[in-house]
Write a structure and sequence with these properties.
The protein is mainly α. 92% of the residues lie in helices and 0% in strands. It contains 2 helices and no strands. The longest helix has 81 residues. It is rod-shaped. It starts with a helix and ends with a helix.
């Protein structure tokens, strides 16, 4: 009688251990899936940040180029105004252009 009871308890313990292992495996898979999703999300965010940075860099570059063009136009205009005063405008324009 005692032996049967011990066998029964051993079977119950084995079943419980199997259930615990199944639950641990299920939780491990959930954890891996969560980590994978987090990694994908992180990669997408990094890619988006790179794209945004590239757009901002391009905008800044275009703005700086535009401002250089505006400066050059202002310099040309000023040189034209002073041409009447016997100043070598072409030489000054060439020097200013060389600066850029």
């Amino acid at each position: 009688m005692m032996l049967k009871r011990q066998e029964h308890e051993a079977e119950e313990q084995a079943e419980m251990l199997a259930k615990i292992r199944e639950e641990e495996e299920r939780l491990r898979r959930i954890s891996e899936n969560t980590n994978t999703r987090d990694e994908l999300r992180k990669r997408r965010l990094q890619q988006k940040m790179k794209e945004d940075e590239a757009k901002e860099t391009k905008k800044l570059s275009e703005y700086l180029e535009f401002m250089d063009d505006v400066k050059m136009a202002n310099i040309r205009e000023a040189l034209k105004e002073v041409e009447d005063k016997d100043i070598d405008a072409e030489r000054i324009l060439a020097e200013v252009t060389a600066m850029f």
